[in-house]
Amino acid sequence: MEWPELEIDEYEKFILRMNPPRVVIDNATCERATLVKVDSVNKQGVLLEVVQILTDLDLTIHKGYISSDCGWFMDVFHVTDCNGNKVTDDGLIEYIQQRIALNHQYPRRVGVQTAAEHTALELTGTDRPGLLSEIFALLTELRCNVVAAELWTHNMRVACLIYVTDETTFGPIEDPERLLRIKESLCSVLKGDKDGKCARTDLASSVTHTDRRLHQMMFADRDYESVDEGRLCIQEQKITIENCDEKGYSVINIECRDRPKLLFDIVCTLTDMEYVVFHATIDSDGEKAYQAYPFMLQPSHLIVIQVVAIYLAVFYLMSVDTWYRNTISVM
Predict the structure, then answer these.
(1) Continuous segment of H or E residues that includes residue 97
(2) Which residues contact 128 (CB under 8 A, 6 or more apart)?
(3) Which pLDDT tens digit goes with each residue over 30-83?
(4) φ/ψ (deg, to 5) at 234
(5) Which DSSP string corresponds to 255-298?
(6) Which of 97, 147, 201, 302 gives the lowest tally of CB atoms within 10 Å of its CB?
(7) Alpha-carbon span 172 to 187, nearest angstrom
(8) Do the Cβ atoms of 99 and 53 come closer than 8 Å?
(9) Strand pairing partners for 281?
């Protein structure tokens, strides 16, 4: 399989040579998995960037050891491909190394939609049967061509990103009055007749990674606030907070059934909630996942950490069977 070449001009190459991240792909240490080792200067969101790259390449992360100290970031991930095999394709190995290295300097290049080619619409509202069909029918009436769409539903709420073009020019829609009319019409469809919670429509204000933006939209909807804390431990899935007062930190411990994108979902949420992950351990035995995230403890932070725990438990752990993702591409 051929992997796309990343465009790097001479100035970017010079910057990378001055302070490059070190990315090592190790197939000798572990019999069952490939080790991806990343050492680089630490910065906000660097962990999410690496996890996002590996997830976007359909690699499964079975174990992880995250550590950052004195401004330096050191991670080790045990990964396999979608078939459970080691990563042995030389082209893919080189692509992973280049992409992680380049993304540390220019994160906007990785995993984003190209804003110049279409108009991105953001929708949040109450889910109901036939909603997506109504939205697409309305966009057709408004002379919009749907290029792609991705939606998540949870707890009878829906968040959706729809990429559209003008049906005549096949380019982005730029007329402000027309864009306002599209937003208002979509909001009316989302509200329906009995929407007890607000519906929102908006235009994507910047180029962003689709999954990351959907995380932010679902979190902003705050449907987890109505959940009883007693549901934090259910069946084989649980999340606990361990307070280590004498050491000045708390630890969020997660034990749940493993699934694709679990680590990405959790790290994305912690990043969007402005929590910096300095250390973490990730493990999986194939059926269950075990993760631990220490946080520096301050008295005012305890309630916030509990909110983080509730959100993670409800949205990502307990709702494995009820949280629905769907991606739609129109050629």
Answers:
(1) helix 90-105
(2) 192
(3) 999 999 999 887 777 788 889 999 998 999 999 999 987 767 788 999 999 988
(4) -145, 130
(5) EEE--TTHHHHHHHHHHHTT----EEEEEE-SSEEEEEEEEE--
(6) 302
(7) 20
(8) yes
(9) 65, 292
